[in-house]
Specification:
The complex is a heterodimer. Chain A is mostly helical. Chain A folds into two domains: 53 residues, no CATH class; 208 residues, MetI-like (MetI-like fold). Helices cover 76% and strands 0% of the residues of chain A. In chain A, helix 3 packs across helix 14 and helix 9 runs antiparallel to helix 10. The two termini of chain A are 44 Å apart. Chain B has a domain of 173 residues: MetI-like fold (Orthogonal Bundle), CATH 1.10.3720. In chain B, helix 4 packs antiparallel against helix 11. The chains are: A mainly alpha, B mainly alpha.
C-alpha cells in the first residue's frame, strides 16, 4: 500500500516537473501563432485560432534579420569548431605522445587557465581584441572561442590516453613523420571525442551571447543571440513576433537534440563540468 | 609498452603546441596580467596614459558599500542553486530506477539547459509579465493580486533566481544521473539481498558513489552564483535591484569607462573564485574531481 503511494507520488513529481519545464515554452508557441489582435484579446493559455498562421515567423525572420544572423552564426560555428578540433587534438597529441622538457609546465598552464572565469577578464580581453584589430569582426568571436577553450584539449587528452601506442609506433617504425601520424592515425582514432567536442562546443557557441554582444556590435554582424536580443527594442511589446523569433532560435537546438540525444548526454557528462 | 616513440626531432611537440599555446597566452594569460596592471591605475580605457594609483581602486571597493553590496544579490542565486542541486539529485535518483517514459522525462528535464540564453530571457520576460502566464495560473488558484515579478525590487531576484533554476537544473540532473548509472549494478543486488530499502540504497550506495560530482557541483554552484550575469543582464539590464557583481563590473568598464576600478573588481572576483577552488581541492582530496 505505502509502496503504491510512493510510486504514485513519484510519478506526480515527475509530471509536475515536466509541466514546469514545458509550460513556459508552450505559451510562447501559442503566442507566436496568434495575430496581433488575437494576441491582444486572448489569454496566454488560449490556443491560437489558426495553427498554421506563420505571419509572425515571416516578420521575425525578415525584420529581425534572422537570415543574416543564422549565416553569421553558421560561419562562426564552422570555423571555430574546425579550429577547436584541430588545435585541441594537436595539443592533446603533443602532450600525450611526446616527452619534452616543458611538458609539466605547459600542462599546468592549461589546467590553471580553466580556473579563470572568462566573464571576469573581459575588461582586459577587450583591450587585447581591440589591439589586434579584431573588434567588430567575426574573427573576434572566432579567436575568443578558439583561444579560451581548454575543455576540448582536455577531452581529447583523456580520450587519447585510452588509445594504445602500438598503431602510431608501428607507423613511426615504417618511417612516417609526426605530422603524417597525427593526420592519418591519431585524428581518425579520435572520432568519438571529436563528436563530443563538436556537440558540447557547438551548443555553447550557438548560445553564446556576451562575446558577440560585446565584440560585434555592428548590426550586420548579428548572430542569433544578438539578433534576438535586438527584438527587445523596436518590437517592444509585440510579443507575438518576439515569440516567433524565440521559437525560430529554439528549433535548430531541438532538432539537434532529438537527432543526437545519446551523444548529447554523453558529451555533457564527459565535458561540460567546467 | 613502456618504450616510447623516439622523437624525430625534439622540436616536434612544440610545433604541435605552438598555436594552442599562443592562443592561451594571448586570450587567457595576457588579459589576466593586464587586468592586474589596470587594477592599480585610474585608466579610463581610452586615454594613452595610465596613471598608477596604487591600491586606491581596491580601497574604493572595500569602502564604498554600494559596490560591495551587490554581492548580496548573489545570495538569491546561491540559495536557488542549492534548491536546484536538491531537485537534480531527487530526479536523478528517481529516474535511475525503472520508470515508465524515462527517456521522455529525462529529455524534458534536460532540454532547457540547451536553449539559447537570450531565448530563455525572452521566454521568462513573457512568463512573468503582469497578467501573463504565471499570473494567469495563480489566478486559477485564487491569487488575486500577484506581485510585480520583475518590477518589485523585493521580488525580482526570486524571479530571476527561479529562472536560473529552470535553465540549469538539467545539467546537474544529467551529471548526477550519469554518476548514479556508473555505480555497478551488483551493489544494488547485494543490498537488496540484505533487505535494504530504497532509502538505504540511496543513503549507502548512491550518495557515496556520486559524492565527487556532487562536491564539484557545489563549488560550481557557489562560483556560478557569484558570477551570475546572463539572466539578470539580458532580462533587465540589472534594473530594479537585480544588479549583480559582474553586471556592475561590466557597466563600470564599458558604460562609465572606469577600467581601472572595473579591473580591480574583476580581480576581487577572480581571487574569490580561485580561493573557492583551492578550498574544494582541500575538502575533496584524492577523489576523481578533475579540472575539466
Amino acid at each position: 500500500m505505502t509502496r503504491r503511494l510512493i510510486g504514485t507520488a513519484r510519478y506526480l513529481s515527475l509530471v509536475a516537473a515536466a509541466v514546469v519545464a514545458i509550460l513556459p515554452l508552450v505559451v510562447i508557441l501559442f503566442a507566436s501563432l496568434k495575430s496581433a489582435d488575437e494576441y491582444a484579446s486572448t489569454g496566454p493559455f488560449e490556443p491560437p485560432a489558426n495553427w498554421f498562421n506563420l505571419d509572425n515567423y515571416a516578420t521575425a525572420f525578415t525584420q529581425g534579420r534572422m537570415l543574416s544572423a543564422f549565416l553569421n552564426t553558421a560561419f562562426i560555428l564552422v570555423v571555430a569548431l574546425t579550429g577547436t578540433v584541430l588545435i585541441g587534438s594537436m595539443a592533446a597529441y603533443a602532450i600525450d605522445r611526446f616527452e619534452f622538457r616543458l611538458k609539466r609546465t605547459i600542462v599546468g598552464l592549461f589546467l590553471l587557465a580553466t580556473l579563470v572565469p572568462s566573464v571576469t577578464t573581459q575588461v582586459a580581453t577587450f583591450q587585447v581584441v581591440n589591439g589586434l584589430g579584431l573588434f567588430n569582426t567575426r574573427w573576434a568571436a572566432i579567436a575568443l572561442f578558439l583561444g579560451t577553450d581548454i575543455v576540448s584539449i582536455y577531452i581529447f587528452w583523456q580520450f587519447l590516453r585510452g588509445i594504445p601506442h602500438e598503431l602510431d609506433e608501428a607507423a613511426a617504425l615504417e618511417g612516417a613523420n609526426a605530422i603524417t601520424i597525427y593526420y592519418r592515425i591519431i585524428l581518425p582514432l579520435l572520432k568519438p571525442a571529436i563528436a563530443t567536442v563538436v556537440i558540447v562546443k557547438g551548443i555553447a557557441i550557438y548560445n553564446e551571447y556576451y562575446v558577440p554582444f560585446l565584440y560585434m556590435p555592428s548590426r550586420d554582424l548579428g548572430v542569433i543571440s544578438t539578433a534576438l536580443f535586438r527584438f527587445k527594442g523596436p518590437m517592444g511589446s509585440q510579443w507575438e513576433i518576439i515569440s516567433a523569433g524565440v521559437i525560430l532560435v529554439i528549433i535548430p537546438t531541438l532538432i539537434a537534440f532529438l537527432a543526437l540525444q545519446r551523444f548529447v548526454y554523453n558529451g555533457f557528462t564527459q565535458g561540460a563540468t567546467k | 609498452m613502456t618504450h616510447r616513440l623516439r622523437l624525430p626531432r625534439s622540436a616536434t611537440p612544440y610545433l604541435f603546441l605552438a598555436v594552442p599555446i599562443a592562443l592561451l597566452g594571448v586570450f587567457t594569460y595576457l588579459p589576466v596580467v593586464d587586468m592586474f596592471w589596470y587594477s592599480v591605475t585610474s585608466w579610463n580605457g581610452i586615454s594613452p596614459t595610465r596613471t598608477y594609483v596604487g591600491l586606491d581602486n581596491y580601497v574604493e571597493i572595500l569602502t564604498r558599500p554600494e559596490l560591495f553590496r551587490v554581492f548580496a544579490v548573489s545570495l538569491y542565486y546561491l540559495g536557488a542553486s542549492f534548491v536546484q542541486l536538491g531537485l537534480a539529485l531527487y530526479f536523478a535518483t528517481v529516474l535511475s530506477f525503472n520508470v515508465r517514459f524515462r527517456n521522455f522525462f529525462k529529455g524534458v528535464l534536460f532540454f532547457p539547459y540547451l536553449i539559447n540564453g537570450v531565448a530563455i530571457a525572452m521566454i521568462f520576460l513573457y512568463f512573468f509579465q503582469p497578467g501573463g502566464t504565471l499570473d494567469t495560473v495563480l489566478g486559477w488558484v485564487g491569487v488575486e493580486r500577484p506581485p510585480h515579478w520583475l518590477g518589485d525590487p523585493d521580488v525580482v531576484n526570486y524571479s530571476l533566481a527561479g529562472t536560473s533554476v529552470w535553465r540549469y537544473l538539467g545539467l546537474n540532473f544529467v551529471l548526477f544521473l550519469g554518476a548514479i548509472q556508473s555505480i555497478p549494478a551488483h551493489l544494488y543486488e547485494a543490498a537488496e539481498l540484505d533487505g535494504a530499502n530504497r532509502w538505504h540504497q540511496f543513503r549507502h550506495i548512491i550518495l557515496p558513489g556520486i559524492r565527487p560530482v556532487v562536491g564539484l557541483s557545489f563549488i560550481l554552484a557557489i562560483s556560478g552564483s557569484l558570477a551570475a550575469f546572463e539572466i539578470p543582464y539580458i532580462m533587465l539590464m540589472g534594473a530594479n535591484g537585480s544588479r549583480t557583481f559582474v553586471i556592475q563590473t561590466v557597466e563600470m568598464a564599458f558604460k562609465f569607462h572606469k577600467v581601472g576600478l572595473a579591473s580591480a573588481m574583476a580581480v576581487v572576483l577572480l581571487v574569490i573564485v580561485l580561493l573557492l577552488t583551492w578550498v574544494q581541492r582541500r575538502v575533496l582530496p584524492d577523489e576523481k574531481v578533475t579540472l575539466s
